[in-house]
Design brief:
alpha+beta; DUF956; PH-domain like; 124 residues; DUF956 family protein
Length: 124
């Protein structure tokens, strides 16, 4: 069994970790780390200490009314994409441990298309 890094938990919610495929489990936000534990396979877990997180990229639509997923980017281990049943509450719990500057908005589809078209027609 995996030992939790947290001494107290602030939020627990059902969630999905998108690695090579979706892994369903529980997300826990605590005083020391962000943790995900898979329901079916106990080897599929992740524990990210707050000091390790560089920033969080948030996908949101309709001025923040709908938040389907968020991505945690770390200093050494790369990026991890998650979604929870109540992503807004999860992000609010994370805000207590991370500075406001570490939350970023994901680029919209229109902006990504505009960048791609601009790079296609740029003079070389």
């Amino acid at each position: 069994m995996v030992k939790s890094l947290n001494t107290s938990r602030e939020l627990t919610d059902k969630g999905t970790w998108y690695q090579s495929g979706p892994f369903y489990g529980n997300v826990m936000v605590g005083d020391c780390a962000f943790e995900f534990y898979s329901e079916t396979n106990l080897q599929n877990y992740i524990q990210i200490p707050w000091e390790e997180i560089t920033y969080v990229v948030v996908d949101y639509y309709f001025n923040g009314k709908y938040i389907p997923r968020f991505e945690i980017r770390t200093k050494q281990n790369g990026k991890f994409r998650f979604s929870t049943r109540n992503s807004r509450a999860t992000l609010k719990a994370m805000q207590a441990h991370l500075p406001r500057e570490s939350f970023r908005k994901a680029p919209s589809i229109c902006l990504l298309l505009r960048r791609r078209l601009k790079s296609l027609f740029a003079k070389h």
